[in-house]
């Protein structure tokens, strides 16, 4: 018997839980963020990290977090991520949006 199957980009497990699909998405996101973590460990300054992040993640429509970065019509700032929990408010993505919005235009 098959434990899970990938159909239209979504992992469907035998017990119909989201665990395998969520794990797959998180794994993909960690792979994309690997180089950013390595650059941060090399003590690069924030503008360099922000430029790498914008070019690598915000410019890739296949990235799982691509839809989290929605620009305002002016294109200068990003919309804040709506969050009710402190876990999401202090997540990497919320901090990235704050960092991009804090840069001089």
Question: Which helices and strands occur, and which strands form pairs?
Answer:
Layout: E1 4-7, E2 10-13, H1 19-41, H2 46-58, H3 86-89, H4 92-102
Antiparallel strand pairs: 1-2
Shape: elongated
Instruction: Name the average pLDDT.
Output: 77
Distance between the termini: 56 Å
Radius of gyration: 16 Å
**Largest sheet properties:** 2 strands, antiparallel
Count of distinct strands = 2
Q: What is the oligomer described by this structure?
A: single chain
Secondary-structure element string: EEHHHH
| Estimated share of beta-strand residues | 5-15%
> What level of helicity do the residues show?
40-55%
Q: Strand order, biggest sheet?
A: 1-2
Count of runs of 4 or more consecutive helical residues: 4
Low-confidence stretches: none
Structural class call reads: mainly alpha
Which characteristics define this entry?
two-stranded antiparallel ribbon, 105 residues, elongated, single chain, mainly alpha
Give structural notes.
- The chain is mainly alpha-helical and 105 residues long.
- 49% of the residues lie in helices and 8% in strands.
- The protein is built from 4 helices and 2 strands; from the N terminus they run E-E-H-H-H-H.
- The chain has helices spanning 19-41, 46-58, 86-89, 92-102, and strands at 4-7, 10-13.
- The protein has a two-stranded antiparallel ribbon.
- The longest helix has 23 residues, at 19-41.
- The radius of gyration is 16 Å and the shape is elongated.
- The model has no long low-confidence stretch (mean pLDDT 77).
């Amino acid at each position: 018997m098959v434990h899970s199957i990938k159909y239209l980009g979504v992992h469907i497990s035998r017990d119909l839980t989201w665990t395998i699909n969520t794990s797959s998405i998180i794994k993909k996101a960690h792979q994309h963020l690997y180089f950013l973590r390595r650059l941060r460990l090399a003590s690069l300054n924030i503008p360099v990290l922000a430029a790498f992040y914008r070019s690598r993640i915000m410019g890739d429509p296949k990235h799982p977090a691509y839809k989290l970065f929605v620009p305002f019509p002016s294109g200068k700032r990003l919309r804040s991520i709506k969050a009710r929990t402190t876990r999401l408010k202090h997540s990497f993505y919320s901090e990235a949006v704050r960092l991009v919005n804090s840069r001089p235009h």
